[in-house]
Records
---
Amino acid sequence: MIIERIKTYTKRFLMMVSYLINGVENKAVFESFSGQSYSDNPRVISELLHTLSPEIEIVWLFKNPEEKRKVVPPYVRVEKRCTKNMIKEYSTAKIWVNNFCVQEFMYKGKNQTYIQTWHGDRPFKKVIYESNKLNFRKNEVRENKICDLCVAGSEIGVQVYRKAFLYQGKILNVGTPRADVLVNGDSDRVKYIRKKLGIPHDSKILLYAPTFRDNKGLNSSQKMDILNFERVISELQLKDNCSWYCLIRVHPSLNIKDINLDDSKILNLSNYEDMADLMLISDMLITDYSSSAGDFILRNKPVILYQYDLSEYEKEDRELHFKMEDTPFWSVQTEEDLI
């Protein structure tokens, strides 16, 4: 513990020195889900920023930058996260944009602007300092000290910043950027994504997107045998007299295991870069405690909360903001009720 604290303060000192010596460049640094993907609110802001101000250099930090070079637009410079380069990029950037908590060692100078676009607006579960089950140390989360602006899409999202981050600064409550594509729709984009995935235009799509369980740990494996996907899409086809596909998308902090993908209509898209694309093309969402439900209803399409472990989840993982029976969502705990 003492060694980790020393490392944290050493990195913070190095950032401060770099900031003071090198100064601030006309550059914006972006991260999404701790460097896992080119996605979510930061992606939307990054692309629009380039359109409005192409003179600003855009840098994205990734855990696997070589792979992401194939994904990002050509004007984006990619760098590896958790390296000396990361300290230099952040310490010399005019703008920071993130959708996750920044690391504890981060130092921000007075000529820099940090924008937080938290990925979980309208959440079911309590996060960070809101939750009695999460053991965040005092001052471990830096947003309430260094953040200049938070972006929210609801009054619930505002309260998350106030209570979970203990943030008292400016909040822009005008909608989450990632939801624009869901609200506006884009028929050409829908056709393009469907074609890329090999899904016929006359088929319907079910998206299954469960969140992670804290008691399993981050980067743990998500078991998928809790739901018979073949049966679910078979029932949908019988009721709807239409062909259905099922897309599986687990939380970015999870791996997927124990799933039989012999059926060509069941696709594991957990590594698909941006979930907004999958929500855009889907006709129904099944999730559990994921804030994706709050985004998907903007499409005016049905959401079912399959909460097979509701009691265990509330006991061992997180407190929820409200009782499921008080929400407008369908909430079920068994496969039979789901069907």
Note: Residues 2-22 form the longest helix (21 residues).
---
Amino acid sequence: MDLRRVQRVSEALREELAEIVAFELSDPRLAAVSVTEVEVTPDLRSAQVRVLCDEPQREAEVLRALEGARRFIRRELAARIRLWRMPELHFLSDRYASASGRIDQLLRRIEKDRQKAGGSL
């Protein structure tokens, strides 16, 4: 599989998952959760979704809530993104639990987007 396609699918899934978690799910346990990264396998069968919770002590509770909503989330993703097969979602807590790690990650994403746009941002 083309690496660029895998990266595009990963980014599209991340954007849509962030919207679904923020606006479509009504579970109060997911109030302050953000989707930080999605890694899709080259065969597009599986995706690791990394989420960041504002309160580290609630991570297990947040992951359980996301696991419970997995079928709804996949159905929403299938309606929004046209793929032959929607990847199986696996939710993990983000390794960048500190604020500085999160800021570094966002800066890298901005720089990557600038490079894709030809530096016009």
Note: The first strand starts at residue 33 and ends at 40.
